[in-house]
Amino acid sequence: MQPGRTTFRIALVKRINNASEAIEFLLALEQFDRWGNKRIVLDCNAKNAKSILVEHVRKVQLGRRTYHYMLSGLAETALMYDGVQVLMDALGRLWRKKPDAFRSALRRAAGQANSTKVIDCNPGKSWVVPFEHGDKISRLIKKTDIEGLTGNISFNDEGHRHNFTLHVVEMTVQSAMLKVATWTDAHGLQIATPKYVQLRSPASYETNRTYLMTSIIQEPYLMLKQGDFGQKEEFYGFCKDLMDIISKKLGIKYEIRLSKEGKYVNDATPEIYTGVIGDIMRK
């Protein structure tokens, strides 16, 4: 495929019905190519895309920064909305210019269907009858010049949209949308220089104290292994491994303390925090 002047190749296509099927496909892809960058286009509605992303985050096997997503469903919704606006704009201009333009068609519809709300383009049910104002509406659409959800909407003589710009963005670790490229019908894809904001790190920290890590028992993040022959119980899991790496890198000591409530946060009384969040808020 060649969008504009930039060439890219689609390696795999998979039709899915739910998030579980998408994750199964990604797990198979992970075994085939563990460390390569994977650029995935989710051509689905926003609800399904959200479910897929949430399930991806929950899968430990997919916890690498090699996955890059593009959500086409959100853009499709915006384009559908703008398409309706274009048609309404054209019909509105025709109505203002010729208020009686549709009266004859409405009279015929009323006589055939006993209704004044429908204009049937196929009254004979055998072949499509061209709408008498179709050519006028087509010319008015080509003269459209409005601002929609997807930017400026205007068309050339062939009826193709022109004079518009697409922004390619990525989400940073701070959940900020950062523009990395633009695409125009005139110049194609142009890479932009993103202005990344470096995360601030604490200037200093104490190494002669023991830091507390609060959590709950939940597989695979933190689990408890029974000790053998009277030995103490041991924690293991993703959070334990992560804290070992952090403590070694920073040269600090830490202690794992389980939340008494056994959950991350309370559900009933949001003004009084309990669980892990409550432990953090009280420190």
UniProtKB/TrEMBL annotation:
Keywords: Glycoprotein, Ion channel, Ion transport, Ligand-gated ion channel, Membrane, Receptor, Transmembrane, Transmembrane helix, Transport. It comes from the Eukaryota. GO terms for cellular component: membrane. One of its GO terms (molecular function) is ligand-gated monoatomic ion channel activity. Its main location: membrane. It is found in: Membrane. Gene3D superfamilies: 3.40.50.2300, Periplasmic binding protein-like II. It is a multi-pass membrane protein. InterPro entries: ANF_lig-bd_rcpt, Glu/Gly-bd, Peripla_BP_I. Residues 220-282 form the Ionotropic glutamate receptor L-glutamate and glycine-binding domain. This is Ionotropic glutamate receptor L-glutamate and glycine-binding domain-containing protein. It comes from Arctia plantaginis (Wood tiger moth).
